[in-house]
Design brief:
mainly alpha, binds fe (ii) ion, Ferritin, globular
């Protein structure tokens, strides 16, 4: 290793630092700085990396308070207060998504370079999504932390920490893919209320989330191929094991097809949802 190269920092260490960063400005800024350094070729990927110390809970600001999903009030977003709570909920998802992308980098070692390039890009996108939503929330006189939130996304990261195949199936292809299904309806509602600005942010997010789910699909298949398992039946097994068995429809078929679900697979997910009355 030459001297210049030895001075480069390990991508794993830097991703670990983003995870640990707790500040509401600090974490997204750290994620964006990681992506910029990676793009400049300044972060090295160690191939002899020892297994990482588990990060039990990533750094978070002292607020929002994390509560059980049942304790979250359901509000419509017709009123400005309801709209602020809605924007906060989406911002919270994006804040978590920074950690989910960094955890994929940090935890799963010995993967091809393209795997890390994908999740660095996702971390950068999520940091930008969060920052846009936070600015919009401030237009409503609020800030991130003003409403309660839940910890379901990180809990799924913990449950799948031992297995990259399960992680790719459950986080991008279940949790992030759910966003593809529900976001178009939210955009339409916001436009109906004349809130073009929030709708515009969600349009950017929807477009970019397709690429995130597509990355999840690619790496899910890659893991399946390496393990010699059939991806569709394994996906259904994983849904049973981790996610109550079925996905809830209705599905955004067009976006899911672009995100690497195939037509037969989508049909069987729809059939299962229908049979379960989901
Ligand atoms: Fe996002
Ligand atoms: Fe995402």
């Amino acid at each position: 290793m030459n001297q210049a190269k030895a001075a480069f920092r390990s991508l794993f260490d830097v991703a670990g630092e983003v995870l640990v960063a707790g500040g509401v400005t600090e974490k997204p800024a750290a994620a964006r700085a990681m992506a910029a350094a990676f793009a400049r070729g300044e972060l090295r990927i160690d191939d002899d990396a020892t297994l990482p110390e588990p990060i039990r809970m990533p750094g978070r600001p002292s607020r929002p308070r994390l509560v059980h999903p049942r304790e979250l009030p359901r509000r419509g977003f017709g009123s400005p207060a309801g709209r602020a709570a809605f924007i906060h909920a989406v911002a919270h998802i994006e804040f978590n998504a920074i950690d989910l992308a960094c955890d994929a980098i940090y935890r799963f070692r010995d993967m091809p370079r393209a795997f890390y390039a994908d999740w660095v890009q996702v971390a950068d996108d999520e940091a930008r999504h969060f920052t846009m939503l936070r600015a919009r929330l401030q237009d409503f006189g609020h800030d991130y932390g003003d409403f309660d939130a839940h910890n379901g996304l990180w809990e799924m990261a913990e449950k799948t920490a031992h297995d990259g195949l399960a992680r790719m199936a459950l986080v991008p292809r279940v949790l992030e893919a759910r966003g593809l299904d529900v976001t178009p309806g939210m955009i339409a509602k916001l436009k109906g209320l004349g809130d073009e600005e929030t709708a515009g942010i969600l349009e950017v997010i929807l477009r970019e989330e397709i690429a995130h789910v597509a990355a999840g699909s690619r790496w899910y298949r890659w893991y399946c191929e390496r393990a010699g398992v059939e991806p569709r039946s394994r996906f259904r097994e994983l849904l049973r094991e981790y996610a109550g068995g079925v996905l809830h429809g209705p599905f955004n078929t067009e976006a899911r097809l672009m995100a690497g679900f195939d037509a037969d697979e989508l049909q069987s997910l729809c059939d299962a949802a229908e049979a379960a009355g989901a």
